[in-house]
Design a protein that fits this description.
The protein has 328 residues and is of the alpha+beta class. The chain is 26% helix and 20% strand. The protein has a single domain, classed as Jelly Rolls (Sandwich), CATH 2.60.120.330. The C terminus is likely disordered.
Length: 328
């Protein structure tokens, strides 16, 4: 399977929208180039990530909040393919969500403060702690800008050619939910036949994922024929995929593709940074009018974006304890 490459700088809005539509119908993944996020910022995100994961384990464990799945998540904490995995993923992570002060904290809505490293919680200096936070907050702002640009191209792709509406989704993203996930994969060789994966096979939960990767391979997507195809790293480009929420919204027209990470023999440690971009917590996700008719009725019941995410976190995160997670 060939992963298409889409540039935000080399075509008209309609051509970009058409390319996105084709990629999401046929693959569900694409490379994104010319996104205008400075390379030095992307490099610094990796530098800060590596420094954080290099901390002693006891210090990293202090930087965690299981109620909101913020901060540090240990090796093996996440099991994304429980049917085939005999143990958790061979990766550790660090979640950074939308910043909300303690007074307005609401775990049922995934709202609350982030866990930031401080000199009192780890061996990083005050300057390094500030740089870590500043880098991640700057990156979040840039990633939101790119995601909103993509959302408007998606909107064009899902409205009629003679009545294009780039603002179709705007009302659902007035206060988007965003999550940066710093990931560090160990060099342990994966053994799929024995149920050991760097990251178990899964589809992403939400709307849209921007994946920043280092130079090490490992990401694979499942083709329509059930074959696992490699997604090689591409310097300066994001790997972008849509998630289950967008598949629901488009009535299955756009594909939320199953993917995994396999660490090959002799591989190095691997770092990646997925950025998850979701609608407002209370946004109602239901089939778009342009994606259904009497011969192709809605396949999925309506659900709020927030409840969808709560359901998925509860099913895949061993330490997740937020209440109000009924299945839908």
């Amino acid at each position: 399977m060939s992963i298409p490459t889409i540039s935000l700088n080399c075509a008209s809005q309609e051509e970009i929208a058409s390319s996105l539509r084709e990629a999401c119908i046929n693959v569900g993944f694409f490379y994104l180039e010319d996104h205008s996020i400075p390379q030095n910022l992307l490099d610094n995100v990796f530098t800060q990530s590596e420094q954080l994961f290099a901390l002693p384990m006891e210090q990293k464990l202090e930087l965690s909040d299981s109620v909101l799945t913020r901060g540090y998540t240990r090796f093996g904490e996440e099991t994304l393919d429980p049917i085939n995995q005999v143990r958790g993923d061979t990766k550790e992570g660090y979640y950074i969500g939308d910043e909300v002060d303690v007074q307005h904290m609401d775990p049922k809505r995934l709202k609350g403060p982030n866990v930031w490293p401080t000199p009192s919680s780890c061996s990083m200096t005050d300057e390094k702690c500030r740089l870590f936070r500043d880098t991640m907050e700057r990156y979040r702002g840039e990633a939101i800008r790119v995601c909103m640009e993509l959302v408007r191209y998606f909107a064009i792709s899902l409205t009629s050619a003679n009545r294009t509406n780039p603002h179709l989704f705007d009302e659902y993203f007035s206060e988007p939910s965003t999550f940066i996930r710093l990931l560090h994969y160990s060099a342990e060789e994966s053994a799929p036949s024995e149920g050991v994966y760097a990251c178990g096979s899964h589809s992403d939960y939400g709307m849209l994922t921007l994946l920043l990767t280092d130079d090490n391979p490992g990401l694979q997507i499942q083709t329509k024929d059930g074959i696992w195809a490699d997604v090689p790293p591409k310097k300066g480009a994001f790997v972008v995929n849509i998630g289950d929420m967008f598949e629901r919204w488009t009535n299955g027209l756009f594909k939320s593709t199953i993917h995994r990470v396999i660490t090959p023999k002799g591989a190095k440690e691997r770092y990646s940074v997925p950025f998850f971009f979701e609608p407002n917590f209370d946004a109602l996700v239901e089939c778009l009018d342009s994606c259904c008719n009497k011969d192709n009725p809605a396949k999925y019941p309506p659900i709020t974006a927030g409840q969808h995410l709560l359901n998925m976190y509860a099913s895949t995160h061993a330490d997740f304890t937020a209440s109000s997670t009924k299945k839908t």
